[in-house]
Amino acid sequence: MTRQVGGAELTGSTVLILGGAGLVGEAVARALLHHNPRRVVVAGLMKEEAEESVAELRAEFKDSESAIDPYWGNLFVPAEMKDRPRSELLEDPAALDLLIHDLYGELTDEVFHRSALGALLVDVKPDIVIDSINTAGALAYQNFFSSAMDLLKSARDGGADRREVEQHLASSYLPQLIRHTQVSLRGMTEVGTRVYLKIGTVGTGGMGMNIPFTHSEERPSRMLMAKSSLAGAHTLLLYLMARTPGGPAVKEIKPTAAISWKGLGHGPIKFRYHTLNRCDAVAPLPLDEAFLPEASRGYRCLDEPIEGVYLHSGENGLFSLGEFETLTALGLMEFVTPEEIASNVLQEVLAHPTGRDVVASLDAATMGPTYRAGVLRSAAIDRMEEMEAELGVESVAYEMLGPPRLTKLLFEGAILKRLFRTYEAATQLDPEETAARAQVLVDTDDDFRQRIVSTGVPILVQDGATVLRGPVVKVLPPEGPLQDNVVDAGWVDLRPQNWETWKERISTVLKEQRESPGVDAGSRSDHDYGHSDETLRPGRMAAWVFRIEDEGDRIKW
């Protein structure tokens, strides 16, 4: 049976499972494959893991028509580095330089397409993305605290070199999380992904700061608290992503217990890069010697691994009977199975609310705009207009709200209001004549000109060759010919082509207003303050530009 998924269909869809080779990812893949997607891409960190997971799924669903394909690599780095260990990247000057550039620079087209995650999204073009990567853990375990202490020690010992500074910058949590989120949203928006579901974490398996399972003698450790902090930050970024027009429907499920298990077995205690090798203590050592470099005489390492019965917990490695029994004991972390998580994921993907979606919970729990605030807004606007009329002053903008583009738009709107007063008159403007009149206004009205340049917004005069500016310029141009995007970002623009743009904007606003059914026809259309006012309102026009032209419209209340 075909199921609707946010405008897409699960049957016949392409599903990308990030962290798909892990415990939860495999369970999600199994749940989704029962609904006959066209293709499932299982993305894992290691090649062996991804291929092994895909082999298991293909064997289990041998009669399925769904294509099941592996992908592997680190999705937090450029694609060319995705198969190299992070420790190796940090020691490679060229790789480290590119890593820092792509992490801290702007998200340009080049940076996006160079990223492993961006390239994967563009290649797969998923309808649905299930993200079961332990993002918070992957970033927190880079241990920013240890890196900071190493850097401080180097500085105190005579100065840290560039490599040490860059290595520390590369381990900073928030820039990595922010860039990861930016790339995710851009990629999914570009390829038309309909649903993004994150399987998140709280960092402590649902326990509080008294959690006894920690990474050091601290309780809880700073690293564990960093993991929880990142998990919370990621949730709020997803909350914002869910409120972004053009993006996918965004959901998050946060298990608050240990997740187990993948299987039971017996053999060498080996997981990914780590093998528990057998060692022996061959001689007792005095305490004052036992932890010095020469203490190696007290032990010997045998060329064989420890073997035993184990429980494969998934991403957290292999647990002994006692470790598993303690971790999951009643009153401690306890546990939830990956199949239960996958069941909730499936229901949310099928648009059957489970009550477990954290993003939806935040939507319900956060406090949005109110009726009272709307009434008081009108009163505040009315009174401010009265005060401006009484005092003979037009405030326009102070550049404390920002961005500079808003200040630019408000002052340009104020110029149009001065020159034409009404929307209707402004639709008849002649761009060349308006440029000349605006130039005269700026040249002759000292107060108006001073108000503009004092905010840090320069004025590009009508010939486009000279600029009026104050001591501060908020949007500085790069070297070379002046680009329109710089002017658009925060310069009052007196050139004729800008007034042609304003003419088109105002004509569009009037057309929308005339075609609106209005309040007589009920509540079908929006009606904001000043909607029926003939006098040009700079604030209303700036709001229209932000909402429509800049695609900044709020889609949730």
Walk me through the topology:
Blueprint: E1 4-5, E2 8-9, E3 14-18, H1 23-33, E4 39-44, H2 47-60, E5 67-72, H3 86-91, H4 93-104, H5 109-114, H6 116-124, E6 128-131, H7 135-140, H8 144-156, H9 162-170, H10 173-191, E7 195-199, H11 222-241, E8 249-253, E9 258-259, E10 263-268, E11 270-271, E12 274-275, E13 277-281, E14 299-305, E15 307-312, E16 318-319, H12 321-327, E17 335-336, H13 338-349, H14 358-365, H15 371-391, H16 404-420, H17 423-426, H18 431-444, H19 446-454, E18 459-460, E19 467-468, H20 484-490, E20 492-493, H21 496-515, H22 538-549
Parallel strand pairs: 3-4, 3-6, 4-5, 6-7, 7-8, 9-17, 18-20
Antiparallel strand pairs: 1-2, 10-15, 11-12, 13-14, 15-16, 18-19
Helix pairs in contact: 1-13, 4-9, 6-10, 8-9, 10-11, 11-14, 16-22, 18-21
